[in-house]
Amino acid sequence: MTIDISQFHGVFFEESFEGLEVMESELLELDASNPDTESINNIFRAAHSIKGGSGSFGFNDITNFTHVLETLLDEVRSDKHKLNQDEVNLLLSTVDCLREMLTAARDGTDIDQAQVKSIHDELERALGNDSVTEAEAEEDNVVDDNDSEAIASALEWHVHFAPHLHLFQTGNDPLRMFRELEELGTLTSAANLSKLPPFNKYDAEECYLSWDLVLVTEANEEQIKEVFEWVEDDCELSIEQANQQEASNVVNVVADKAAPISEDADASKVEPIVDKKKAADKKAGANNESTSIRVNISKVDALINMVGELVITQSMLSQFGEEFDIKNIEKLNEGLKQLERNTRELQENVMQIRMLPISFSFNRFPRLVHDLSNKLGKKIELKLSGEATELDKTVMEKIGDPLVHLVRNSIDHGIEMPDERLAAGKPETGTLNLNAYHEGGNIVIEIVDDGAGLNRDRIFQKAVDRGLIKADEDLSDDKVNELIFSAGFSTAEQVSDVSGRGVGMDVVKRNIHDLGGVVEVKSEAGKGSTFTIRLPLTLAILDGQLIRVGTQTYIIPLISIIESLQTNIENTKSITGDVELYRLRDDYIPVVRLHSIFNIACDSAKLNDGLLVVAEAEGQKIGLFVDDLLAQQQVVIKSLETNYKKVEGMSGATILGDGTVAMILDISSLIRLYREQAEYKTSSAMNNQAA
User: Fold this and answer.
1) CA 74, 77, 81: angle at the middle one, nearest 5?
2) Of 368, 446, 447, 674, whose CB is crowded by the most CB atoms within 10 A?
3) Arch. (CATH architecture) of 5-139
């Protein structure tokens, strides 16, 4: 029986990426002058696991690369090597390189060999090994006179390796170990076949062979033993150094072009394995992104308990179907109410399965702040709070890029240089806070810095220069601050690779809006800025207000509604082209007649006979004229674009309790439709007057 180990690739990659996160987190906290022993051990264990796993699955490039990293870390933890800050930064670069290698192996794409070689050589230099790299040695493939000194220093080691019968069942393969030994020097191998049983008694899952290996290498015994550490409890192993005369004979053989075992070698020798599955693994790995999610066992238990309750309720209700009696109507109603409770709790429990702590998003920022602050010459302390706050996995994946934009802008534009902060009476180290918490049915994420704040005058002047506002407009500070979310807007005096091109903040706002959320900014000159993001906890369920227009039912997201009111005709004004405005306190709000937008019949066209729902999106308020307000309820969102096609003014649909379909309104899209309709009416009216 053969086992397809590619089925375990997903788990390997998931655990490897988690290991890289541990390494990165520990390195960012590491004090190079006085490294914490436990931190070094954690980093070493993560690297060791990645090396072992990649070797088991045949990802040899990753194994070879991680071996050098592991050797350096081993010397650090045994106090043979003292780290400095440059080497800590090198280790961080190594983590990045490993992440890219693992991603390439997972997706079946090519590894950037130039980058790998560059980092590999730097690690070798950190180890004090300036000799020819393994890749260069393989290219030469011939021992010439210049290598005589290196050959002379090589030692011959005799290794007897006798695996226990169950070795294969542990997932280990001797041939992978032999490949690793070949990287240490020149290897010859003789297999002992004496314990092979007759063919009819042969078990393919048991290992009957043992090997006598001869390794000529400059490596020491510990390095050789390290190759077998994964199987040390599953084999008989002896490693002995040959006497000098034997070593001399071997050196002569090596000098006479001794090469790794080839196809022409004796049949009793073990051939190095050619990775025949490489192409297949590459193809199978393409687009193999992780779709798994880790769930706390308590959530699974709650789900199982709720399913049990549903089974009991279903059993109780089925009895009424068999012998229904009007006298049991009260028990039937009680059973239906119980079914409703169970269904609601089941829905909540299922949604909890998809909820993950926002720490999964926050974990990327310590490295981002570390790298950018070093690049810009700033001192910044990052503080994280509310990491346990949970939100839907889909929301978390899509909020990552907007958060990165906001954090980068706070570092680049917000927090000042150390000398500027000292001159302003501030500590030279700036503070950047990331905070998350629940508020109602939403999650709130705050990015707070104690920097210089937004420059109101510069923002105002830039907006005037770009024609976004008029020079004589009187805008509040909040309105001026909102201008930074305009497309192409930037106050940076020079363009850098961090920011200043005028792209990003408008994308941030659009992406957050696409998630059904809003972003706000508050700033005080000299004291800092606060960006606040409000998002729904999940994209699958929506808190909505049901409205009626004629015979049609629509749903407005509650997060978009400001207030609802009975209209007063005296507060209504019409301007050119029959465009209507409603005066709400000190503000004029355009009136959007939904029956006109969607071309459907309504109960009444008079404003004082209906209701006005004031909603907001992208900083714009509109009044939706409706016939009636119905109930508020949670609805399950169904995508129109996936199941039908994109429809302007609609963000999705849902099925109501009576089986009818109700459309979910997209306020931003309605604002655009209204503007197009208003421009058309105004243009038509002006043309008529001209005629």
Assistant:
1) 80
2) 447
3) Up-down Bundle (1.20)
Angle at 345 between CA 340 and CA 348, to 5 degrees: 130
Q: Choosing from 48, 405, 413, 595, which is the catalytic residue?
A: 48
CATH class of 357-536: alpha beta
SS3 662: strand
Query: Catalytic annotation on 676?
Result: no
Catalytic annotation on 409? yes
Domain 142-277 CATH (choose: 3.50.50.60, 3.30.70.1450, 3.30.70.1110, 3.40.1400.10): 3.30.70.1110
Burial class (CB in 10 A: 0-12, 13-18, 19+), 156: buried
- Would residue 9 show up in a list of annotated catalytic residues for this protein? no
Question: 391-424: per-residue pLDDT in tens?
Answer: 888 888 888 888 988 998 899 888 999 999 999 9
Tens digit of each residue's pLDDT (9 = 90 or more) over 284-293: 333 334 466 7
CA 183 vs CA 83, 120, 187, 260, 451: distances in Å: 26, 14, 9, 10, 53
Query: Domain 541-690: which CATH class?
Result: mainly beta
Which is the catalytic residue, given 24, 26, 70, 124?
Answer: 70
Cα 610 to Cα 614: distance, rounded to the nearest angstrom:
13
pLDDT of 430 higher than 90? yes
| Strands laid side by side in the 661-665 sheet | 628-636, 541-549, 552-557, 661-665, 650-655
Please pick, among 64, 409, 435, 481, the residue that the annotation labels catalytic.
409
- Say what the pLDDT of residue 503 is: 47
